[in-house]
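Lab notebook page, bench 4
Experiment: in silico fold of construct C2
Operator: M.H.
Input chain length: 440 residues
Purpose: comparison with the prior construct
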Amino acid sequence: MVRVRPENAGATSRREFLAASGGTLAALSLFGLAGCGGGGEAGGDGKLIVSINAFVEDTVRKQVRRFNERNPDGPRAEVRMMPEDTDQYFGQLRTQFQAGSSDISVIAGDVIWPSQLAEPGWIADLSDRFTPERRKAFLPGTVEAMVYKDRIWGVPWFTDSGLLYYRTDLLEAAGFSEPPSTWDELAEMAAKATRDGGAKDGFVFTGARYEGGTVLGTEFIRAAGGDILDGEEVVIARPEAVRGLEIQHALVADGIAPKAVASYKEDEASGAFLRGDAVFMRMWPYAYDLLSDPEQSSLDRAQVGLASVPVAEPGIEPVNVGGGWNFYINAGAADADQAWRLIEFMTAAEQQRELALEGSLLPTRAAVYDDAAILEKLPAVALGKEAILHTTTPPVSPYYSDMSLAMAEQFNANVLGTTPAADAAATLQERLQSIVERGG
């Protein structure tokens, strides 16, 4: 199944980004200093350059033109297109920064970048600009992802959330009126719904060895009350984290999820659900749009509901691990004040609303979720709003890329059953601690 891109977006999907982000930040030399502006301060030639990649390019260019029209006396903002692959994008930025020659003033980048850009001093501390009062307008999880060493390094632009998709018709036929809130409830409902007929599998998810698998493993851990890091301390071997991984494996071992989920990425998981093969699926909001496409779905929207991802037991707050993109300012920007004005403009409610309507991307400002036009355009927002409010992000660490590779390997082994959950957690405790101690 190929994801249909939003209308007029010219965009790369979250699915495609996750698939592209599974490798190391390799082959930096392939990009050399291509696109660099010849050194000196960022924007030193009188231009305010903002870097993006293929995400909703047309909308972003339109918004930048509007910014220039409303700010005729400042440096002219221009869009710099970067590689579509996020690893390549980050690699090119890092090469430029290491050479001291990046002329980019404002960086649009992934949610996992703040610590990796802040640790070497490449982006500006925005704590005094993005004040606590300003932060109140944004979804808490998106703001927390910008915190590193008690400082704020970016402003949330758009977000993404993990949702539980469920077959309302199959649950009703099996005698259930509400979606599950715990994993035990999901297992019970899935088992009965598959026994009663109508679906081959109970639950599908992205369990392959890649960034999406890292996200899912982290989500199972947090849904059990555990985590990967506590500040800079590795805590993945704690009982709560182990229990989360045990739950993930048990869903496969007990036959609720097919063994094939160990190789599933977004296409495989959503394809199975949209064909009608599964009762439940954990997926991003974009898959809901595909229900209206008869070439990709044998279901219709009336058969599908959205809910928060289940937790290990009652009393644990619902949680999911999502993603998103943010704006950062080059620490060497020649006109940091104008760069900040651009960020304020791009993340304002007017522009977030436009980005949601034209690019189907979830806003980071809470008030935008009450917009009737957005609720009509993105019905997944209305159905999954509660889950979106509980979105968290991957662990914040300047060494996240290396950590993610180790986690993808062990989380996949846990899903496969080749490594018991406790052993996978113990291995990761050692490996992640080593990565932190040696600095990557």
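Observations: The two ends are 36 Å apart (CA to CA). Confidence is low (pLDDT under 50) at residues 1-40.
Next step: discuss at group meeting.
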